[in-house]
Amino acid sequence: MPGLHMHMSARQHATYGTKLPEMSQAEHCTMVIFGATGDLTKRKLFPALYQLAAEHLLAPGFAVLAVGRESSLTDETFRTKMREALGESDEVKKVDDSVWQEFEKRIFFVGGDATDAAAYEGIKKKLDEIESECAPETRNRFFYLAVPPSVFEPIVRLLSSSGLVPRIDDPKQRPWARVVVEKPFGRSLATAHALNQLVLSLFAEHQVYRIDHFLGKETVQNVLVLRFANSIFEPLWNRRWVSHVEITAAETVGVEARGKYYEEAGVVRDMFQNHLLQLLALTAMEPPYSMTADAVRDEKVKVIRSIRWLSPETIPEVAVRAQYAAGTVKGEKVPGYRDEPDVSKDSQTPTYAAVRFFVDNWRWKGVPFFVRSGKRMPKRVSEIAVHFQAPPHLMFGGNGVGRDLEPNVLVMRVQPNEGVSLNFEVKVPGAAVALTQNIEVAPVDMDFAYAEAFGETAAPAYETLLLDVMIGEMTLFTRSDEVEAAWRLIDPLLDYWASHPADPMPTYPAGSWGPKEADKLIGKMNGGWRKP
Ligand code: NDP
To answer: Is 69 in the pocket of ligand 1 (CB under 6 A)?
Structure first.
């Protein structure tokens, strides 16, 4: 069994069958979910909670109080709804009825509108009853805002004024009260800053867990292990040996039924400000002095701040936007973005973007980071590809090889098939070409797949993240200054595109790897975009 000794979350210890360190045990607590009848609760939160229950990772006094506006629901009917949702979930392979029957006893529902102060008396009363029954000694609580971002603000105000979440300055104080905020955190630097100011006027930073679920993914955490727990990569991890880095987050889906949401968001807000900049930060950051939350987050903030500003003069050269046109994805004909429901016929919302970033610091000066994301691509894949410099002199080249040698590429696959592969050149076996100057050379892959090495696929991100909230482990959550640093970088791009409508908007056929403008951006010199 390979041994991972990075700050492993309790979820990972369970997955890999290692002993749980004492600090990783979840404390007794109650989780209060606002937005309990929504999509996220059904598709992500309950499957994750069920899995944690099945793996005995929840504290015995753990309970869930779901809050929703559908006041006709009861504990019983809500439990039934969640049981049905588990059956439909891709993330739960098989529901064990004995686990569910024990777990459902700890699920409760209370009707109420979380944006209305009048609801809070009912929530408090129910919470009091649950805590008295399940964990009378502790009364630790966390409040999960699985609601649209437009209601984050009134809810955090009410959590504070109702006394449900008091400000607690000392992280060691018990009972604790935490607030988990979903993405997107703001829709610009100004709105993110205002939300941070509000939240931090009510609570201490250590009480606020800002979710970026990409950070809960195994390979994302593995980027740090790969870089800093091995001595072979880090000496090469700089401008001397790396020619460029490609970061891709491709989806095969279009906007589905969420056209209205997507028109407001677009690919830059949806993917770049959060997930892609997090991947870039983990790839480019300096080694933290320890794996504590603040040490890691300090380094991430530093590197995001050293990314070159996207000025209005440079944006046309370094950034490309596009929308998918009609096409074929996985053998199925699909409409173009502007023909999707709830999408304007002259929409300017990009479904694809590619940006060339530079990290202006000692390590990375001059190394381009090509970052792209799009909907309706041929394949669902998220990965980081580090391209190394070509060897300085090719004595096999010209006659023997008959092609340019491919530089080495280290690929960290975030999803699916989480793993790492390294591409390098080898001699083709056989004596067909006997003369050494004519050796035949071919590229091969050395591949590590989590599923093969550890016997199962990586844990869904929400399991890792929920357990971390219960433990008080904040490394995988974004801090206020980090969120703002990311918005500060992205804002000029959003402003520029908003004030310079594309006419015509570049398009790419659904099922292709993006517009031709993006090919120009990366250039032939860099070998074009990878086709993962
Ligand atoms: P939904 O649109 O499904 O809404 C969630 C719930 O919020 C609703 O069911 C409703 O619950 C409650 N709600 C909606 N409007 C109001 C309102 N005005 N006042 C009070 N409550 C309201 O959203 P999702 O579940 O898809 O997303 C929830 C959050 O998670 C969002 O911030 C989203 O960006 C984020 N997110 C979602 C993902 C997903 O896969 N769905 C992925 C990543 C992030 P009720 O009627 O019971 O009160």
So the answer is: yes
